[in-house]
Amino acid sequence: MNDNNIANTKDNKTCPYHNKCGGCQYTGMPYDRQLAAKQEKIRNLLGSFGKIDPVIGMEEPYHYRNKVHGVVCTDKKGNGYTGIYQAGSHRVVKVEGCLIEDRRADQIMHSVTGLMKSFKMKAYNEDTGYGFLRHILIRTGRQTGQILLVLVTASPVFPSRNHFVKAIRKLHPEITSIVQNVNDRSTSMILGEKQKVLFGKGYIEDILCGKRFRISPKSFYQVNPLQTEILYNKALEFAGLTGKETVIDAYSGIGTIGMIASDQAKEVISVELNGDAVRDARLGARQNNIRNIRFYQADAGEFMVAMAARKEQADVVFMDPPRAGSDRKFLDSLIRLKPGKVVYVSCNPETLKRDLSYLTAHGYRAGKIQPVDMFPMTEHVESVVKLTRAGL
Ligand code: SAH
């Protein structure tokens, strides 16, 4: 590990909620030890596939999370507060501040709950089904400074809505948009189907690798934008594009990797399941004036099966599946499509190992493996792997 990767060794902050929350497994552990543990985990799981470069850590591994969520509660006196579900349960632990969350978001969350009593607004109670405000979700744009506040309510009827919006905007003029999301189901999902923009555009924008992205409440966006740029630059370096390639960006979210790669490719085909994310991607491409990219809303596996059946060609495939990894359908079609290079971005080394075993048994060779610490204080680690078709 080089010196760049070791930061904050003296400054290992402790968190008062550590034992109850369960979100961060490594708080209190010096950051260099956290990185060493992640390196070791990746080495154990993936060492047999290829060379593992030193994990890229953060200079300042705190307050990086751009997406902040709180479960809303009211105490006996009617004061609102937010907390998080205790790991593995539905008990809420009151949280007044978090070491990894964006500080601006934490302050806004406090202010929202601080207004509840004077507005006679009750927190929703999961057991009785009584009450109004369920969750607060805040998304921040690191480079643009934009802030989206999402108020998740149990019913669409929002008493004193305009006054509430006015009051919170007065306290936080930095908020650029407010959305009411209605979740009237008894579910562990935070966001419901229906949404109403109460103020601003209904989404935020952020800039990564020089491109501007649009992020709606339900679209996936990496939680640590500083490290995301490092991750994407590595993915692009592994792809080694020359401007002539047909590129697939699978599990593309709001189209970040594909749009960033588009300058160096002939054309990009992006596929993503979430309709809101695809909409963000299409509008983002237009805003960035990118013309050589197409977006499809589909299951990535089924999309690849159809591409392989039509005998279409792709030179490079970026794949960035969710924690569960990819599926057989996707991997079998990838093998049939025979792209010269596959760049696999993964937030779960266990499923990455499983998928790499399959791909390396079917004509691919893993090259470099680059772990990136996207989630300091937690045990999670992101990796990007370069795969080439054997014989190329
Ligand atoms: N590459 C993007 C998103 C990665 S997260 C980025 O870096 O921001 C994984 C994405 O896969 C999410 O947007 C999720 O909605 C999407 N997804 C999950 N299952 C999928 C499937 N079966 N087919 C296509 N996309 C899927």
Describe this protein's structure.
By secondary structure, this protein is an alpha/beta fold. It has helices spanning 18-21, 31-46, 103-116, 161-171, 225-239, 256-261, 275-287, 300-309, 328-337, 349-360; strands at residues 67-74, 80-85, 92-94, 133-140, 147-153, 177-182, 194-199, 204-208, 211-215, 246-250, 267-272, 293-297, 316-319, 341-346, 364-372, 382-389. The chain folds into 2 domains: 18-61 and 224-389, Vaccinia Virus protein VP39 (Rossmann fold); 67-205, Beta Barrel (OB fold (Dihydrolipoamide Acetyltransferase, E2P)). It binds S-adenosyl-L-homocysteine. S-adenosyl-L-homocysteine binds at residues 220-222, 251-253, 256-257, 271-274, 277, 299-300, 320-322.
Number of helices: 10
| Structural class by secondary-structure content | alpha/beta
The CATH topology of the largest domain? Rossmann fold
Tell me the CATH superfamily of the largest domain. Answer: Vaccinia Virus protein VP39
Radius of gyration from the CA trace?
22 Å
User: In the residues, how many domains can be counted?
Assistant: 2
The CATH architecture of the largest domain would be: 3-Layer(aba) Sandwich
The biggest beta sheet reads: 7 strands, mixed
Q: Would you report the number of β strands?
A: 16
Strand order of the largest sheet: 3-2-1-4-5-6-7
Q: What is the CATH class of the largest domain?
A: Alpha Beta
On the 0 to 100 scale, the average pLDDT is 94
Distance N terminus to C terminus?
31 Å
In percent, how helical is the residue content? 25-40%
Poorly predicted spans? 1-10
Order of helices and strands: HHEEEHEEHEEEEHEHEHEHEHEHEE
Distinct bound molecules: S-adenosyl-L-homocysteine
User: Per the principal axes of the C-alpha atoms, what is the gross shape?
Assistant: globular
Beta strand %: 15-25%
